[in-house]
Specification:
With 160 residues, the protein is mainly alpha-helical. Helix content is 59%, strand content 4%. It has a two-stranded antiparallel ribbon.
Length: 160
């Protein structure tokens, strides 16, 4: 079931969606309560300014979302800097082996700073994608090895 609103932009969601089949199959009282509260008749009442509760929530989400996007941008920059420095400063414990090949490519210009930055961006977004899939339990799993519980197997495979 979708509660839709008039689209004012081409990006972003313009609806709230509830999977009734899933809610009832799992007998999820919490999700049903959220659905009920969202669709209650009191939510559609329009005030003197012509807004209803849904529009007020939408505006509040936009206001809260802006700082969150700014924090995400800073967090992505921090992650890229940390990973980049880590790759450049890495050395194999108990040996003299380090990441000299990467340093040499950067020094010679074979790998430009812009290319290195692009690779870091790609890596960070891939990690974010994997973390989101993990959080939603959407990753394909392999069969646990003999003697390993499903929980132990799943925990060993997770990145986050």
């Amino acid at each position: 079931m979708r509660l839709q609103r008039e689209a004012v932009s081409l990006s972003g969601l313009n609806y709230a969606e509830f999977n009734l089949e899933s809610i009832f199959a799992r007998e999820s009282q919490a999700e049903f309560a959220r659905l009920y509260l969202m669709l209650h008749v009191s939510r559609s009442r329009v005030d003197a300014a012509g807004n209803n509760v849904w529009e007020q929530w939408r505006q509040e989400c936009r206001e809260v979302g802006q700082p969150a996007r700014e924090k995400l941008s800073q967090s992505l920059s921090d992650a890229m800097e940390t990973l980049g420095n880590g790759f450049l400063q890495w050395h194999q414990p108990f040996t003299s082996e380090s990441n000299e090949a990467l340093k040499a490519k950067l020094r010679s210009g074979e790998l430009t700073a812009a290319d290195f930055n692009q690779q870091l961006i790609r890596l960070v977004y891939r990690l974010l994608f994997i973390f989101c899939l993990e959080e939603r339990d959407c990753l394909l799993t392999t069969v646990p090895s003999a003697g390993q519980s499903a929980e132990d197997h799943q925990e060993a495979r997770q990145l986050s």
